[in-house]
## 1
Amino acid sequence: MARISAAVLSKYLLSGELSCRGCLGARRVSFSSESASYSARQTRHFTARATPITGPAPVPALAFQSSNPSPVPLRQQLKAQARALKSSGEKRKKNADNQTVPGWELTVGIEIHAQLNTARKLFSPAAASFNDAPNTHVALFDVALPGSQPSFQSDALIPAVRAALALDCTVQPVSRFDRKHYFHWDQPAGYQITQYYEPFATDGRIVLYPRDGIAPQDGEAIEVGIKQVQMEQDTAKTTAQPGGVQWLDFNRVGMPLIEVITLPQIHYPATAAALVRKVQMLLNSVDACVSGMEAGGLRADINVSVRRSDDTTGPLGTRTEIKNLSSFKAVEDAIIAERDRQIALLESGGVVVGETRGWSLGGTETRRLRGKEGEVDYRYMPDPDLGPVVIDDQLVRHLKDWMGVLPDAEIDQLIGDYGLSSKDALSLILLDDGARVQYFYNVLDAIEARLGSNADHESLATSSGRSHALLVANWCLHELGKLTEVSADLGMTPEGECRVPSTDLAAILYHLHSRTITAKVAKELLWSVFRGEIATGAVTAVVEANGLWFKELPDEEYAALADQVIEGEEKVLGEFLRFQDGKSKAYPHGKLMFLVGRMLRSGPEQMMDPVSAERVMRARIAEVYIPALQAKK
Amino acid sequence: MSARTGLLRGLCLHHVSCSAKQLQQQQQQQQRRLLNHFISRDPKPAVNGQDAPSPPHFTLAVKDNIATTGATASSTTTCASPFLTSYRSPFEATIVTQLRARGAVVVGKTNLDEFGMGSHSVHSASGPVAQGPDNDQGQGQQVRASGDYGGEARSAGGSSGGSAVAVACGEADVALGTDTGGSVRLPAAYTGVVGFKPSYGMLSRHGVVPYANSLDTVGFLARSVGTIADLLVGAGGLWAEHDPKDPTSLSPAARARCASGREGYRSSLTAVLKGVRFGIPLEYNIEELDPRIRDVWSASAEALQQLGARIVPVSLPSTRHALAAYYVIAPAEASSNLAKYDGIRYGTREDHGGSAGGESESDVADGGVLYAASRGRGFGDEVKRRILLGSYTLSSEAMDNYFIKAQAVRRLVRRDFDRVFALANPLHEPEAFDLSDLPDSVAMENKFGPTEVDFLLCPTAPTLAPRLADVTAQQQSPVDSYMNDVFTVPASLAGLPTISIPVQVAPEAAESPGRETGPGAAGLQLIGQFWDDARLLAVAGAVARALSEPT
């Protein structure tokens, strides 16, 4: 069990709060804690203290009711669900099998909030910060001191416009800021400045492909329209303390966000999750966004409605909104749960009420937050202190020209030019917030520089010449991935460098590609570089010093080993004869590799190449053993 | 002398002294206490012959919704609201800093209607402001017999009533006010001093606690037009100073562009009245206009005509909708601006009888009762009225019928002004006007339309200063009170520079003969085209001189 400090553990147990900025530590944890009754909190406080931390902490039973928004440790919540499912005797359907309900059509629209990558807040010159000491970056306007005024930081436009372009939006030459009014302690002015009436970007679209993870029902591609993208302020960060005390960190208040609003054009839960994932990928790829959903930099609200699929010409069903989803899985799970709730309600003759609902991570159903009658009228009003935002077409064109390649184009390139599978291409792009693919290019450049003397550029682009690229991709994904399974992370920088310098990996792979070291040696070298046992740039020297060069056995010795292995394997050889005689259609490749494997194990490994071993084995069988068997007949 | 006479109402007087001078001082002090025009006051500034600051200093009273800093009593900024009784701003308003640099010595923070909302300076957490019978003690122009002071105390106007009285009493050479819909001009008219509202965007609002941002301006009150003109125009004039902290402060480039079509900014202006065209807006001659004011209005026009000015009747057809539009837009913005006063950081939190914290928490979940209770107790009635009004007009069901319509009216009001002024509005493209929209009463200058004018001449308020008793005893409904703004609001909606200068009204027109003579002064308002502030001040100075001379 992980060692967790008592302070962290007590925060987690008592107020459901995680110290890290993860999806569980999402904002508005305050909401659940504020509505938990004081006495319940006291009880838990007491039991947590009285129970050894290693034992299962008893939690009041009421906390398991999903309608109760009390903060319950996730593990306990999941356990309780598993128990409930077990006792009810039904199995939870896998999401992949739960994309549709016969007779019903689901419609989903999504609003995504993302923190813009800027140095300053949206309306004050205070620094935008993430993990600095609380309340250290606060300007007069951020806390709405009487008489203070907003000062629009036009720098925010650059990531905002980039985001809009990545989402294929039309950037509006003139947009305006409006005030959205509601009372909450995390909002010192009593209103949030947003763009309601005239957003800065409208009418965009996102195309989703199967590789993005859309539902199979959506076919080869689906386009989802973006209604608008608007700039707005973030709120203060609330940290719930025991005893109904809330701590506020105004570092976050006024930080620039964009809100991306899609049209209600999504009909499958998986596609909704894919869309949110893709928006994150697009925003990352144009450097518009600070961090992803896992780090709390992205949050989604979803609007869900259902109607009978035999009448899809009429209006959409009444929709409900589910707020503040902080993981891709939560998006998909919440949609499925809400869809099923609405259908069950309608099928039993009920009516769906327009309301705002919540979702707790790992839950099985959404819960009502507030109904229509409790709905806040935001009383949107143009902000009388702020002038219009005028975005010059030249700026938009400039940003468009310098935006670089968008992920979809890059994935196509990786597949088309380097022969990667679409799954590998997507993984490469998504890993380390886009830094992994940069690392891939760095390694590729370095290895091509070494290969350059032997092969001109054109031959590198041909299918035989690009085998090194596939090799690099495989190592960047899979071998590098194995390193992190065991110990610390790679320390990948946005520039595409990590604890394994790209030039060193290129050196290893160059030797591997040119068959001067074996794969086994290459893997050991990688580990040594990762552990820092080999100094940067010293890969070749280490190979030299330790005599790791691949000195291949002569073919005769391979043949001798082959003979040794085949000894007593007449039954296996019979398969080859059957193929030779046309009695079986396929060459018994599996049998061949079985023999090759035995051959490699029986010889001096560092001097053998599986390719050579296979070649010799195949030749021995064809040239010596088959004729011998045939002769026997 | 005590520093906080304004605050310490009901204070026992010191033991009687035999010195006549002290007695006189005590009487003055008592009177001032009754006037209640200061919320906080600095001790007598230590300025004497020897160490007078250079540049030459002047005394400045600051309306208490304008932030000041410092260790003295006047460093609170209360806005006359229970929410801010002890609020000390960590920063100073740009306008105060600018005036200090020009020799201003702040004498105190003046009383007002809470957050600037009111027309009589009676809606204040520090109690109502009154103007006494002796506020001509300085160079005030009222001549009035002292009467039954307590019962007959008059309204000082609002919301900058304290500032107006401070100037009228001679306790400050200049006072800062804020003018959203007439809050500088109305008190100036009631107390017989000069009140000036500049073009919107000329003076920085940074540090001015907003009431309605799109209308709010910082204004000046003084005993003569020249005092204000000295500060605003000419070399080192405030007109040229852009404040980057105020997003509505005109940029240096915009200032230069606006001033390029105007006189009086680059070189000083010798104002002659000969040939100046004054428009008399027909729509301002309303039924409710006090006959004494109508008389002084027409007498003034005649006097100016005799001095060579041209008097031209003009029509501003949208005027009759302006007041309604103002009372939609201003409360809407106010409801938004005042949302921050919620008992969390300002004011005291309502805890429902001090029960356990857990209970008030559940109140929050029940729909924000925590805020409702704090705000219900923390705001005065007039502010609450406007917050409710504003919240309604912004609600999704009423927005289209109120807020949007009011903005349309606001545009029409501005177009009306643009049509009658000879100068173009530098903030808007010239528009074509349809002559058939004009009433028949407007005479045509030629086939292109009626005469265009330089300034508009009209009363500042429809009545003279009412009795405070009548105002506070709720004999006036809120709507009656709003009616006082009918002549001041149109220029606010259009953002135009406007000045109210005092004129004497006939003393024989007393309302209850034999008992009281009524206020002796009314305000006459001059409205100019946008950014024509320099010429407006020059001409207003000439008009004030001309009207004060016996004909």
## 2
Amino acid sequence: MLQDLLILMRAELMLILIIFLLLFLKLGSASLRNETVMNMVNGLLLVVLALGFLVKDSGMIFGNMFRTDDLLRLEKNMLTLGTLIISLQSYQWLKKHDQAMEFYLLMLSTLLGMFFMLSAANLLMFYLGLELSTIPLAAMVNFDFNKKQSSEAGFKMIVSSAFASGLLLFGISWLYGTTGTIDFSGLAASLDGSPLQLFAFITLVAGFGFKISAVPFHLWTADVYEGAPVPVTSYLSVISKGAVLFVFTSVLYSVFHAMGTVWYNMIFIIAVATMITGNLFALRQDNLKRFLAFSSIAQVGFMLVGISGQSREGAAALIFFVLIYIFSNLAAFGVITLVSSASGRERISDYRGFYQSNPALTWILAIALFSLAGIPPTAGFFGKFFLILAGAGKGNWLLITIAALNMIISLYYYLRIIKAMFMEHNASPLAKVDIPFSPRIALAICVAGILITGLYSGAYQYIYQLLS
Amino acid sequence: MNYAQFTALLLLLPLASFTVLGIWGRKYIRQASGIIGTTVLLVITALSLYAAYSYFLVDGQTNGTYQPIIALQLPWLQFGYQQLSIDMGILLDPISVMMLVVISVVSLMVHIFSLGYMKDEERYSTYFAFLSLFTFSMLGLVISVNIFQIYMFWELVGVSSYLLIGFFFTKPSAVAASKKAFIVTRFADLGFLIGILILGIQCGTLDFMSIIERLTNPQSEAYIGMTSTGFLGLSSLTWALILVFMGGAGKSAMFPLHIWLPDAMEGPTPVSALIHAATMVVAGVYLVARLFPVFQLDEIAQNIVAWTGATSALFAAIIATTQTDIKRVLAYSTMSQIGYMMFALGVSGYGGEAGLGFTASMFHLFTHAFFKSLLFLGAGAVIHYAHSNDMLHMGGLRKYMPVTHATFLLACLAIAGVPPLSGFFSKEEILLAAWQGNKAIYFIALGTAGLTAFYMFRLYFMIFWQRDKHYHSDHGEAPFSMKLPLLVLGALTVGTGFIPFAQWVSSDGKPFETALHLDFSAAPIAMVVAGIGLAYSFYRKENDKPARLSAALGSLYRSAYNKFYIDELYLFVTHKIIFRFIGRPAAWADRNLVDGTVNGLATSTENAAGAIKGWQSGKVQHYALYFFGGVLVLAFLFIYLWK
């Protein structure tokens, strides 16, 4: 039993250990330098990652509330890797911050919440995980203490997520009321698609939709992304979103398959609305963070197209795309973090002539944007192709046409930034940005990921085979 | 023989050259980068010629038919859907081997020309790196074994041409042009992508050979599935082919997706010679030819291909007669010639003599590549010397640029279709195929042939004859590196027409005989002679001043004695009637309707973005309202309406 617990929950236990370690260090008298804390946490995250890869096991514990298998392990590893990259990238920003330790406490708590959410085999467990991954996030958003915008964003986030949680809980209680169970397997067996259950399902979708910023539950996104410190924005848009997308897919596929047609139509509508709204807003943004917020809404729309495939390919394409999305978006955010912490500038117009002063960073940002736009040979091309191929399996060509049209609109605005950086001359471009060791490693990982994940087909095949 | 190693080198070498020049070019090997790029291309050209030699003459044929050879095939991905697998590989068949030769030879010439032409550019090494990238993508495109691979390289070609067109990025017009080209072709690729998905899902394979094999067999599951299902009255096979063709039409600048091509002339001139004359713009023709056995099964798709081609050929030729920018004339003429190749495919049947259109199209692609890149490079030399793109600023250049003049004249004669130059033979075959396939298209093509001769010689006379414009050039005609490609391409322009093309390239791989029919050639040659004669009488000497024209109109009888009266009348007919009532409306439609629609789409998208901005008010209570509203709408839709 104890052995099972230690092995099956090793990622969660490791995170809890790190959190307690940080807490004791904070409470103790020893005053550590921020750099030391960061290097320590990064090292420990690397250990978590290694443990995740080393031992293979699967099973269920805690009266079938907590489960784990190879696929979940892979998903957790992806999230850990992403968190590690963000932690490396926030080096410059956190170095000068008074509360670096608390930042890590909060971030690791949310990661822990996501792990529990992923492993949940039961709606209650899922809800607890979701809350644990949301509430500390609001505090992280508020982490630029001297910026009013940041506190406003934190407030908006906590209030909006309260709506979402309320609805989610409402839906869960209806489901429990109609079926008498909150176990995923029990639910899957006893759902019959009655109107009451449909309503419960809709509120559940709304709760998920809030977390992944699907339209019309996305409105908090832009304000919160803009107000939050850049590393937190990237954490929100990549890690938190990725985790919920994983859970969303597995819940839709394994629990609600009895309502397949309903949820297909619902995802269809939401996907179309999400892609179009995200793209139309992104067209107009001048603030880069806000821009990435909206473009990431559009990306979620594409992922929903893949999910709508209702097939093993759909699930594989989604997980594969999230992996690519982690690399691509974090590469873009990495560059923006560096520039923002060096100069405080975050507007697209500030990036005019960026190539003149920072050729290396320009190329990295360009590769990331090309990947987000889905241009070969970057991984984004393959990711989008698989998503659309999976979606096309259902034969809904209207959805596929809309998705493909949106790919062109998105190309237009991604090129806008590339054009500004490379092709617009600026008499006084941003000063040369110094890249310290940690962010350098993080950017290297991201660029390597973007270039290799797509061309090397093993990643996709591995995911596909895990889904059997 | 084993093709695997050396055909793989065809891809690896330019990729390596791109990497080396891209990473170290700027800092360490700036001076050598041109030489490195050119040497790599020299090797590639040798390899391609060797591949062509061994495929066509040694071992490509089995039982009298050229069989496709899969030189290399690496299973890349097993996608679950109906055992859909994606392989990366190298496919050699008559058309891909022919394309290898075209791409490598033209690219080599452009490399050599650029050694002199781009010598003083600050980003000299970057330029050669981009050229290598483009060559890599284009070679990868033609040897693709499956439709996913071709799509990937297709997009890569788009990226590298984006980089090359926007090479002079300090020029706002170049930046705008590169973006326009990228977005318009990407828009066309949307059709291509959906076409690929339909074909892939319905056939259960993305492999070209298997798609063709399954769809040409009327008993196969894939064929029955694709012809029995449909949408809006067209079968899914027709839809898939039309959508794939849409991608091809975008890359090949077919009406109405051609609007990016004239603007793309903002790129460096050698780049235009490579991309916009010989390689990327014919990718669409190549794509249709690659899937030709499937296209010829479907009458609707064939007709769309044929009529798109014919319309583009005529439309572009009319516009070309009104332009004064030397590169724009060439751009429209390219569009017009690609229109020829396209409709030749559209009117062609399959197998043996019936497949004449296919052979003719490929033949014209082959000959056109050489004389059109010669024209572009010649134009490059002229621009280099005269420091202007505008024909009105040129004249009398034959005295200063003898080599350019001679080769340019050859190319003009070839594109006009004067025997015995290469363009004559290929155009003749196309006209014959059109005559057999579709009489209406034949007459359009015949008229276009006359127009072609007219506008090419208008260009020629205005540049090389007319009055001397007194150039302040600080250098001679051109360095040797710029003259050499002109001479080589000139020789190819003369020689390639005599290649017995039908022996090697045919729709079903079986060689057949073609012969010249003198009686049939009479009409086209008469059109060409008329076109050239007209151009001679109008543009040999400067005489088209609008003031003189109106004066001539006012004193009609005095002019009757005037020897030039006939000229003036022709001028009146062309300038006042043809140009104003046909040319100008055509140009106007091009600028306002076609361009306008695309621009209008962009503007209305932006307006829509502005309109929904009110949504994002910044107030949390509004957000909550929308949130609950969303839930209610979904509940309403799915619980009440949908039930």
